[in-house]
Amino acid sequence: MKNLKINIIFICFVALMACTAKLPIIAAHVVTETTLHDTDDPAIWVNPKDASKSIVFGTDKNTEGAIYAFDLEGKIIENKTIRGLKRPNNVDLEYGFQLNDSTKVDVIAFTERERQQIRLFSVPDMKALDNGGFPVFIDAKEPETNLPMGIALYKSPKTNKLYAIVGRKTGPKQGYLYQYHLTSDSLGVHSRLVRKFGEFSGKKEIEAIAIDDEAGIVYYSDEKHCIRKYYAEPIKGNEEISCFGSAYFKEDIEGIAIAKYQDKGFLIVSNQQVHTFNVFDLKTNAFIKEINLGTIETDGCEVTTAALGDKFPNGLFVSMNDKKNFFFHDLKKLKLLE
């Protein structure tokens, strides 16, 4: 009986590999210039004045790391790139943070793992707003439970409060994620812990986090277990909504991107070791299809449905590739709406 089970598992694995091998590669429209070390996670800033001049940010995960800025041709924008960072891991972006009574700014936030903190910069002027960084997981007692990895920003549509939800290298079975409220006053920008939430299987780690602001929903990858789903509003409580998708991944469930149209939404998640992406219905979380974008070992991905000029008139999907670069795809080529 044991040998029969092993054979069945092997046959299923071979079938999965054969199916994946037949998936046609959707060629990238742009492959960025390479970073120095190890790409990981992207974020997209849509320029409100001229969308064709939007910026893609991407982490270079190393002790001497950086947040790279790329134009839509994939060229590095050196004066928008942040260097001298200690292992930046994941990055996210939010619009319209209330900096003072008269000023709103767009911001990027990213984790700086080796300094056990998160950073906050304004976009596109790239000014630090954090006085050097906000410490995270300061109550951690076990090794690696104070090392931030994943981050996602959430701006509440009800209160306009801005939050950073942060994951780490490892953590407890309950309360793995910490949620910080980011505020600004005459003394500067501040970070305050408002809750600990989120289950963890203990199998590997939690890195990829994405938030549907409009619906107030957090998705994160419990890497060898499932995609977990929670409410983003602290007052909605810490009960898990669902844990789904595990049957469609070989090993690590990785980067998550949310593509929202007027009447339809999609969750696009990296199937890391198969080098493909699984697409789920955002509302029902039902599996839709698998796509091959040509990237290898994708950690992070991001998407916008906004038209970005003539280069990407249908929106943009950005994914990390294990060759120190990022792939840019015209969103229409993913055929989400077909």
Automatic annotation (TrEMBL):
Residues 16-338 form the BPP domain. The keyword Signal applies. Keywords: Signal. The keyword DNA damage does not apply. It comes from the Bacteria. Pfam families: Phytase. Residues 1-27 form the signal peptide. This is Phytase. Transmembrane segments: none annotated.
